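are you around this afternoon, could really use another pair of eyes. what follows is a protein written twice so to speak, once as letters and once as structure tokens for the fold. i want to understand how the tokens follow from the sequence so walk me through it. anything you notice is useful, everything is just below.
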Amino acid sequence: MSGTKRANIHPGLEVQIVLKKDQRSGTLTSGIVKDLLTKSPNHSHGIKVRLESGDVGRVKVILNAARLET
């Protein structure tokens, strides 16, 4: 599932994001989506989200795609 399409992402989804400070290294941070911050339907670098932990970054990997159907 692509993290570049807003329709694929919703609150409660488990994802891996890249934080702004980690963009050069590509280090990923795992968490649960709390809010979607990108308003456009697509973004080439990934949809920006806020995790329940408060971390903000762009979605690179959707870990639990089964939750998309709920």
Notes: Strands lie at 14-19, 28-36, 48-51, 56-62. The chain is about 0% helix and 35% strand. The chain has a mean pLDDT of 91. The longest strand covers residues 28-36.
